[in-house]
Amino acid sequence: MAETYRKSKIEHYLERLQVRKRSLMSQLEMTELKQSREFICGQLSATDLIIMEITVEFGLADINDEGGEAIDGECGSKQQNT
Questions:
Q1: Which residues of 47-80 are buried (b: 16+ CB within 10 A; e: fewer)?
Q2: Whole-angstrom distance between the N-terminal and C-terminal Cα of the chain?
Q3: What is the reported pTM?
Q4: Using one digit for the tens of pLDDT, what is the confidence trace for 60-82?
């Protein structure tokens, strides 16, 4: 039972991180936050790294449906254009 509880807790934390990641990605689209784009990209990269580490460490690959490609696409190309 304890193992199931811990796995459930880890899955819940992973879901919260994915919500945070989606929020950061939406902030990249906001023109009001254009000056903070570099900071947001850093936060997004760090969040994505944590998501990947948790996914690998606890074998939750089937739960994680978001990879790092979105970050590279959002931050990489948009940073170069600014």
A1: bbeebeebbeeeeeeeebebeeeebeebbeeeee
A2: 52
A3: 0.74
A4: 865 545 555 455 566 765 444 44
